[in-house]
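Whiteboard transcription, Tuesday session. T.W. wrote the structure tokens on the left side:
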């Protein structure tokens, strides 16, 4: 079959078949573009084109951009890391006393009507005391700061608070408050809730013994029942990890983990 017949069957213009490209060989230019991109990974095609012009390459910006894309050298957007004044750098040592290190997290639940609400949970890592249970329909970084300020009126603030990367805990308002009050924020690694095991265990007890037991009609109703459970948890509920003492008893006696078990 002739080329003309093949082009007719394929609906291809014969001129296209016989066309010979007159473009200059771009292999050297493409190699130089790749060399610059590898030496300067954050340079886009515009900066590379400027550097090529300084080296004497006459090619225009459109050609450099086309070759740049053919080489697959698009610069990926880099996620900006937020600088935090109160960020704790390094592992927090185990707590050896009351009010040294706290843990903080959120728990979600819903009313009988189906509307959701949240509970801010804060515990003392050493005594396992429930420092705070703040329930509300909406809790922001400002709400967290106000709740912690209210707690500081009745007990000293800790050296550090272990938190995850929730938006409320990474907010500027909480970061500024922690820096001003001398409290460091110990952020766990993303996807590693086991690094905040104390609060995860407490949240499970809260859900099993309180949130799953009651049907809440309103936020006021939920706040009353949750606060009553918090007081019972601190003053009357025996804790297995504390030698079956309540968190309040453990804090008052000032025992060290394990000593109370040996005494039984």
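and on the right, the sequence the group agreed on:
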């Amino acid at each position: 079959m002739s080329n003309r017949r093949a082009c007719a069957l394929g609906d291809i213009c014969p001129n296209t078949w016989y066309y010979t490209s007159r473009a200059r060989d771009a292999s050297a230019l493409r190699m130089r573009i790749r060399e610059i991109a590898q030496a300067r990974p954050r340079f886009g095609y515009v900066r590379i084109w400027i550097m090529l012009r300084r080296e004497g390459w006459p090619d225009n910006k459109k050609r450099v951009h086309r070759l740049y894309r053919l080489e697959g050298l698009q610069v990926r957007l880099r996620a900006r890391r937020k600088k935090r004044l109160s960020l704790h750098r390094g592992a927090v040592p185990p707590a050896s006393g009351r009010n040294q290190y706290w843990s903080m997290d959120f728990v979600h639940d819903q009313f009988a009507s189906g509307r959701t609400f949240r509970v801010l949970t804060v515990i003392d890592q050493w005594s396992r005391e429930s420092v705070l249970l703040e329930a509300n329909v909406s809790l922001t970084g400002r709400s967290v700061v106000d709740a912690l300020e209210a707690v500081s009126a009745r007990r000293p603030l800790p050296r550090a608070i272990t938190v995850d990367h929730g938006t409320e805990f990474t907010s500027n308002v909480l970061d500024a408050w922690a820096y001003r009050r001398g409290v460091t924020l110990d952020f766990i690694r993303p996807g590693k809730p086991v690094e905040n095991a104390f609060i995860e265990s407490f949240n499970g007890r809260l859900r099993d013994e309180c949130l799953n037991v009651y049907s809440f009609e309103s936020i006021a109703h939920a706040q009353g029942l949750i606060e009553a459970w918090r007081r019972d948890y601190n003053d009357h509920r025996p804790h297995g990890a504390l030698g079956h003492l309540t968190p309040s008893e453990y804090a008052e006696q000032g025992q060290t983990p394990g000593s109370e078990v040996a005494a039984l």
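Someone added at the bottom: Confidence is low (pLDDT under 50) at residues 257-264.
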